[in-house]
């Protein structure tokens, strides 16, 4: 998907919400467990119920890999369902990959070609030659971890390296990578106070912002410091939406949660006019 198409969807739906599909058999409604593929049935119901209020879906790959082959099949069915029924939705494989060049190319082919995701999250630690293989894919997007939402982010990401915080070096250095136009960055909603400085380095890049809802990040704070004239934000909520209730009305509850967030986003977008 082209960035312009994502921006057009955001404006049309008045939403920059990404729904996280962190589907866990221990948490989904019990009545679904009798289905042949409970994970896919859950995802399908959540997608159908929430798609009106969001512009992106982000399955976290760990939640599928944990079930081995059957989990991988559920993931494949989910992305195929999304691409067939809601091709306007931006899709993110939250896989946090990155390796030496020829291995990164295999990861990129797996997620961009075989599964046909629009984007993938990548750890920047192995540097330029581990990231550029992902950037080589046209109209696919590489979402580099910059400043993550967890407390462990302070172990390395905020440490000073050659007079600047490591996450700032990640932002600055990656801007010079080949096909850097295909880069986006992860910045946790719990780190909203850092967004002003981040926008000084990457004024226009899209940021994937996880951490509202269950992790306590604040939507208004993120928008205040992170929003650009082209919005530039995809705000993710996973557990806060998909487990809004775990009874037979789970999809309706998820829809209501997504709608609430979309309404808040609409108010934020009005301030751009
Ligand atoms: O810094 C990061 C990077 C990724 N994540 C992922 O986003 C979702 C958040 O889920 P919630 O239930 O809304 O807390 C999850 O898949 C994380 O692995 C993140 O939280 N922070």
UniProtKB/TrEMBL annotation:
Domain spans labelled Orotidine 5'-phosphate decarboxylase: 16-254
GO function term, MF aspect, one: orotidine-5'-phosphate decarboxylase activity
EC number(s) from the headed UniProt entry: 4.1.1.23
Pathway noted in the entry: Pyrimidine metabolism; UMP biosynthesis via de novo pathway; UMP from orotate: step 2/2
UniProt keyword Lyase present: yes
Root EC class: lyase
Reactions catalysed according to its record: orotidine 5'-phosphate + H(+) = UMP + CO2
Protein name: Orotidine-5'-phosphate decarboxylase
Species per Swiss-Prot/TrEMBL record: Croceitalea rosinachiae
Gene symbol of the encoding locus: pyrF
């Amino acid at each position: 998907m082209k960035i312009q198409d994502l921006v057009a969807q955001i404006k049309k739906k008045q939403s920059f919400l990404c729904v996280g599909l962190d589907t866990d058999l221990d948490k989904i409604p019990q009545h679904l467990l009798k289905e042949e593929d409970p994970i896919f049935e859950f995802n399908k119901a959540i997608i159908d119920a929430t798609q009106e209020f969001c512009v992106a879906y982000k399955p976290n790959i760990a939640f599928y890999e944990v079930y081995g082959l059957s989990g991988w099949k559920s993931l494949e069915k989910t992305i195929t369902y999304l691409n067939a029924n809601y091709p306007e939705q931006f899709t993110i494989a939250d896989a946090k990959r990155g390796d030496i060049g020829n291995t990164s190319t295999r990861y990129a082919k797996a997620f961009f070609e075989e599964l046909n995701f629009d984007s993938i999250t990548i750890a920047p630690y192995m540097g330029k030659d581990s990231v550029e293989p992902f950037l080589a894919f046209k109209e696919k997007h590489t979402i580099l971890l910059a400043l993550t939402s967890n407390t462990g982010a302070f172990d390395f990401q905020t440490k000073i390296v050659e007079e600047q915080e490591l996450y700032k070096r990640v932002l600055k250095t990656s801007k010079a990578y080949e096909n850097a136009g295909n880069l986006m960055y992860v910045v946790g909603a719990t780190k909203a106070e850092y967004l002003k400085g981040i926008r000084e380095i990457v004024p226009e890049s899209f940021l994937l912002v996880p951490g509202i809802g269950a992790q306590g990040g604040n939507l208004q704070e993120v928008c205040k410091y992170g929003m650009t004239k082209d919005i530039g934000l995809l705000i993710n909520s996973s557990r806060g939406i998909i487990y809004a209730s775990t009874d037979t009305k789970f999809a309706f509850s998820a829809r209501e949660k997504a709608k609430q967030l979309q309404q808040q986003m609409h108010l934020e977008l009005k301030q751009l006019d």
